[in-house]
Every structure is written in C-alpha cells, then in structure tokens.
Design brief:
The protein is 0% helix and 56% strand. It has no helices and 20 strands. The protein has strands spanning 10-16, 24-28, 34-41, 46-54, 61-63, 66-76, 84-94, 97-99, 103-109, 119-120, 124-134, 141-150, 162-168, 172-178, 188-198, 206-215, 222-233, 238-242, 251-252, 256-261. The strands form 5 sheets. Strands 2, 3, 6, 7, 10, 11 and 12 form a 7-stranded mixed beta sheet that branches.
Length: 262
C-alpha cells in the first residue's frame, strides 16, 4: 500500500529460465504447510530475468542501483537475527538512474555451488533464494524467490549390518539385527529380533524410528527428537518397516545435523 506517494511504485517479478519445464519439489514451511518450488542440483546454472513493472503508466522511479543476489543460508528459529550465509553471490543489474517504463534485466549465476540440501526442521531451516533489491532513497524495494536444492549421492562402498543387544541380567536377552547401517530415504528397513533368553512375561514390544535434530555449537545446544514411525507392536522374529518420510539426513559441521535412529 502507498501512503503519501512513499509506497512501492513498481512490481518486481523473478522469472527463471525453463521454469515451465523444470521439475518442482515440495518443502515444509515453519507452520507445517507445504510449498512447491523449482528444483535445482549442485553445479547447475541459475539464470533468468527480473521484470520491473511500473504500477502507473507514464510514471518514473529514481533508484540508486538494482542488484540480484543468490543466497544459501541457515536460519535458527531461536536466533533469527543471526543467519549464517554459506553461499552469497551478487550481480549488478543497473547502475543508479531512473526507470521510466516497464523494464527487464537478465541475470545468470553460472555453475553455482550448492553443497547442502534444502531443509526445514523443528528448530532450523536451510534455504536457497534469489533476492532482488532496488535501492531507493527512502526505502528499498525487495523481492525474494526460493528454490529447492537436492544433492545427488552415491551409495556407500561399505554398508555392513548392525547388531545390538539389550536385556536384563538372568531375565531377558534380546538381540536386534538390521540388514545394513545406511539407508536411502525410500529404502525398506529389514531387521530381525532374536529372543535368546526370556524368563519374564512380555505383553508387547514397541519399535520406533526417531529423527533427532541437533542445532547450535557448544552452548546453547538445542536438540529435538521426532518419531517418524512409532507404536509398531510386534512379537515376531522377522519384521519389515517401510520408511516413507522425505526428510533429509544431513550434517553440516558446527551448525546442525539430523540423524535417523532405529
């Protein structure tokens, strides 16, 4: 809204190359809703154009320069004023001057490094976005547009099975075995439970898959655990669990990590 002529006098639109044919992906927002954005991979060029449309025909707008930024950053929900930018690229679109009509500016960020996947968790968000800024004397005009980044990974060369033992001395001895230690997010988790010693009554047993998210470094350190699949009742020695959660198993040194626990 414009009060006394000081509001935005132009609309800003970011149009990415090939957006009609490029794949899209969904990501959760802070409030739990899902948004769909264009999907990019590490090393891909991000290019397009910025359209500046005057709100009133025949009007003009003075500016101190126009720029576009490609930013990758981590946002901690409990420390919103202190974002960590791990990627920051800037292109100058126009030098100080005057816009007298609808104008378009092309841009290209060649082979952009995108080392981490987009992620929204309980306490942290990792996002990539484009930001256009029209610098003006009183207040800048800013437009942001998010993209989603997925990373391509190779299967690990070593992926040995996991064995664990739990129990109560002279009363209960149970052994768990999983067929491998590393899983793709769409993998089926196959395991076995061996009851080697049972001298007490067992009513039921529960199995849960937990995502543990740790944010921060040193003090303060914030940790949040979420059950992806829980309350699985079983008393059989063979079990199969399908993991359909599309969260990211991601580790960024000194900032945050998410780990799947079985």
């Amino acid at each position: 809204m414009s009060f006394f002529g000081f509001g935005p006098s132009a609309d800003i639109e970011i149009v990415l190359d090939g957006q009609d044919s490029r794949k899209t992906a969904e990501i959760k927002t802070e409030d739990g809703k899902k948004e769909k954005h264009l999907l990019y991979y590490d090393g891909e060029t991000v290019a397009g154009k910025v359209n500046v449309t005057m709100k009133k025909a025949g009007s003009k707008m003075e500016h101190q320069g126009i720029k576009i930024e490609f930013i990758g950053q981590i946002e901690l929900y409990y420390d919103r004023g202190n974002h960590h930018e791990f990627t920051s690229l800037v292109k100058e679109l126009a030098r100080p001057g005057e816009i007298t009509g609808n104008t378009s500016y092309g841009f290209e960020f060649q082979q952009v490094e995108k080392p981490y996947e987009s992620y929204t968790g309980a306490n942290v968000r990792l996002r990539y976005f484009l930001r256009v800024t029209i610098v003006k004397r009183l207040s800048d005009s800013v437009k942001e547009q998010d993209i989603i980044v997925h990373t391509l990974s190779q299967y690990p060369e070593m992926n040995s099975s996991i064995k664990m033992e739990v129990g109560i001395e002279d009363c209960l001895h149970i052994e768990f075995e999983y067929n491998k230690s590393k899983y793709h997010l769409k993998d089926v988790i196959v395991g076995k439970i061996y009851f080697l010693l049972v001298r007490i009554k067992i009513r039921y047993m529960e199995l849960a898959i937990v995502r543990r998210e740790t944010t921060g470094a040193g003090d303060p350190l914030c940790e949040r655990s979420t059950s992806l699949i829980d309350n699985i009742h079983t008393l059989i020695a063979n079990l199969t669990v399908l993991l359909e959660e599309t969260c990211t198993t991601l580790i960024m040194p000194s900032k945050f990590s998410t780990i799947l626990l079985k």
